[in-house]
Every structure is written in C-alpha cells, then in structure tokens.
Amino acid sequence: MDKIIEKKKGLKRKYIIWIVAGLAFVFLLYKALFTEQGSVFRAEKDKLTLSIVETGQFNDYITVIGQVEPISTIFLDAEEGGKVEEKLIEEGEMVKKGDVILKLKNNDLNLNIMNSESNLAYHTNELRNTQIQMEQQKIQNKQQLLQIDYEIVRLARNYEQQKSLFNEGLIAREDFLKVEEDYFHSKKNRDLIYMKLVQDSIFRENQKKQMDQNLENMQLNLLMVQQRREDLNVKAPVDGQLGLLNAEVGESINKGQRIGMIHVLTNFKVNARIDEHYIDRVRRDLTATFERNGINYALNVKKVYPEVREGQFEIDMVFEGEKPENIRTGQTYHVKLELGQSEKAMLLPRGGFFQSTGGQWVFVLNEAETEAVKRSIRIGKQNPQYYEVLEGLQEGEKVITSGYELFGDNDRIKF
Question: Among the three residues 314, 338, 362, which one is the final residue of a domain in this structure?
C-alpha cells in the first residue's frame, strides 16, 4: 500500500531568493534617490577661509628677498711667496689703492737679488773695460793708418825723384826698381790695413751691440727680481673695504695663494635667490622695485646665474637712479620683481589649499552656501596675492582657499 507524502509548509527557497533580491534593489534605489553622492566631510564654515573669484588686472610679479652686496669684489692673491712678517691692516678697514696690507719675508728671494746685483755689477765693469780696450785698439789702428799714409807720401816723393834720375841715366836700373817696389808695396799695404780697420770697426760695433743687449737684459732681469721683492708687500689694488684676510704673522704664504678680498663700495648691487620654478622667466633687464621709508627705489636685473643649487638660482640687480641713504652691505629688502605686463584675468586669492591640490582642483560652494563640492580647475601664472584661473571657475563663485589637510579624500564639504 502506497504511503501518502505530505507537502511541507512555508516558502520555497527560490521565492526567498527573489524576495531578498527585491529588497536589495529597493534599498539601492532608495540610496540613489534619497542620499547624496560621494563621501561627505562636515565642517564649520566660519573656521574656513572663503574667497570670491573675480575678474581684474593680474600683475605678473614675484616678491623676493634681496641682500645688498658690493658692486664688485677684488680678490687678493699673493704675487710672491714668503712668511708673514707684519700685518698692517685688519679686516673691515677701509683701504686706498697702493696701501700695504701685509709684509712678507723671503730670504731665498733676497739672496737671489743680491746675486743678481753682484752679477750685474761684474758684467757692467767687464763691459766698461772691453769698451776701453776697443777704443784703444781703434786709436792704434788709426795711428797705424796715419803712419802708412806718411810712408806712402815719403816713398812717392822719392819714387818721382829716382824716376827722373833713372830717365836721365844717372842711377842704376836696380836702384830704381827697388825704390819703385817699395812705393807700390806701401800702397798695397795701405789698402790691406784700411780693409782691416773697416772689418775691425764692424766687429767692434757688433760686439758692442751684443754687450749692450746683454747688459740691458741683465738690468731688466734685476728690475724683475727687485719687483718680486716689492711684491712681498701685499698692496690694495683698488679703493674699498678689506672684507677678508686669511693671513697671520708667522704664517707661510705660497705664491698665488688667495689671502683676502676687497669690496669695491663705489656702488652696490642687490643679490636675490629665486625658486627654480621661475628660471625660464627671469632674464636680464627685468625691472624691480622695493619700498624703504616710504620711498620706492628702482632696480634692474643685471645678471642671471645659470646654476641651480638646492632648488634655487641667483640674480644680481643694480640700482636705476637713487639709492637709499645709509645703505650698507648685508641689508635685506623685499623686492617686487616684474616678470611681465599686467593683463586682465580671472583671479583667485592665494591660500593654503594649493599645498594639497597643486592648483588642480578646489572646493566650490553652491549658491546656498550649504556645501562645497570638489571641482577640477586649471591655474596659470601666480603672484604673491593671486592665482590666474584659466579653466573651471566663474566670476562670483566662492572657493575654500584655506588648507585642505583635514578634508581627507572627501568630495563634499557640508556646513
């Protein structure tokens, strides 16, 4: 006999699944319709900095801290080595061109000078003796020529007399020929002596020139050595202020060693360090201004240093026109450096938000100012007061410009 199987009471499993899915759909639909999108952070509006986006003139400048420096600095290098014997001027003192700052002592150099002086004196005396001998030889040669001329005159007269006697047959031919030979021999001898005198004269002249040149070289060498002794006195090359002096009495200084510097105070320059972000925009001849005691002073960029160190580069600016009274090396000024022309732009006041967003997005308030929503923007130039807004904001909108550190990753701020 078959057994009757009773049906179980309750909902079937497939119906339970459908019910759960339906409830989940209703819950998600409720969240979509009746709750806000994105994560929310609640904040007190009065503790935030709110700024209004406005249209105005954007002044393209940056503010830098400039330090007054001498217009130029002349370095002091030792022209000659030696031991510091005396220190006549201290750091910070004013100097005139030619003032002796240090006196050095070099015994080897002094000995070299003494040897050069002795050598010059010896060769000078030798030259004088040689010149005397040359003059004496010159006189002797002239006397010899004079003597041979006298002999030729005497022999010529005798030759003419003997020739007449020979022609008249009064003397023997042999006697006449002897007189004739003596006469013509003397004339030829005179020509040889004259040639020797000419050659001796040329030789003496060349010898004298060579000796004079040698003596001149020795005198020049002595002057150079004496100049080296003079270089033992380290002198100020220009008027100015002795800014640094690395030398003490008894210290040995090498030739060419840098021992100090002199600041030229006929004028001043202003040196400033600028963030490398601006290195492509800063160039020569840009203008700058700063205010001191209610007076504005103008500067001009004279030099831009290409090296970047620790994220900064340097510039030198010179004064255009008047300088502040009582200006001193080391003073600092807050300088307004103009990077470009003023132009109309959408402006957003600077604030701490930039540190968190890099200017890529901001929180913008709604019209009711009940909340602020995250919005992407694009920022162009900036100055110490404003950012130039290129995209993402409209005139009159309010933006949270204080720091965003507390907001985390939230997309909305509820007040």
Answer: 338
Do residues 148 and 189 lie in contact, with contact meaning Cβ atoms separated by under 8 Å?
yes
Residue 133 corresponds to which amino acid?
A: Q
Do 316 and 204 share a domain, yes or no?
A: no
- Whether the per-residue pLDDT at 26 is higher than 80: the answer is no
Q: What is the 3-state secondary structure (H, E, C) of 178-223?
A: HHHHHHHHHHHHHHHHHHHHHHHHHHHHHHHHHHHHHHHHHHHHHH
Looking at the fold, whether 159 and 273 belong to one and the same domain comes out as no
DSSP at 91: T
Q: Using alpha carbons, list the distances in angstroms from residue 29 to 19, 24, 150.
A: 15, 9, 152
Q: Is the dihedral of CA 62, 63, 67, 71 positive or negative?
A: positive
d(CA 226, CA 230): 6
pLDDT band at residue 117 under the 50/70/90 scheme = confident
326, containing H or E segment: none
- Which of the residue ranges 132-141, 321-330, 395-404, 406-415 would you say has the lowest mean pLDDT? 132-141
Q: How confident is the model over 156-193, as pLDDT tens digits?
A: 888 888 888 888 888 888 888 898 888 888 888 888 88
CB 58 within 8 A of CB 383: yes
The whole-number pLDDT of residue 32 equals 45
The structure's pTM equals: 0.56
CA distance 324 to 335: 14
Residue 277: CATH number of its domain: 2.40.30.170
**Residue 22 within any structural domain of the chain:** no
Among the listed residues 53, 45, 54, the one whose alpha carbon sits nearest the alpha carbon of residue 372: 45
Report which residue type is found at 170: L
Residue 382 and residue 347 in contact, taking contact as beta carbons nearer than 8 Å: no
In a domain, 17, yes or no: no
d(CA 44, CA 24): 35
Question: Which tokens go with 374?
Answer: 């995250």
Domain hosting 240: range is: 74-106+233-253
Averaged confidence pLDDT in the chain: 86
Asked whether the predicted pLDDT for residue 50 surpasses 50, the reply is yes
In a domain, residue 4? The reply is: no
